[in-house]
Amino acid sequence: MEQEKSQQQICLEDIKKAAEKLYGGYDKLSAESRTFIETVYQNPDLTQLYAKVREDEKTNKDILIEFEDNYPDVLNGDNLTDILKAARAKKKG
Fold first, then answer.
1. Which residues contact residue 81 at a Cβ distance below 8 angstroms, ignoring those fewer than 6 apart?
2. pTM (two decimals)
């Protein structure tokens, strides 16, 4: 959205080049990050996508706060993704 306002579009190839420079390759990014980036470039309605991402972030925050309250000192950067996946699956099922 900011890109459109400034008329300085960042293409997917620019992101891949930056990932190569910063991380040694686009494939070094997590699968979740790559999926998110590619989804952004496939979605014509970025305003709606942004609203969905913000909603997901708020949900994730609530899940992690609840987890931390129930299991203090367990959550860390290494298990965060797994905990979120498990908690989301538990809420759906």
1. 30, 32
2. 0.61
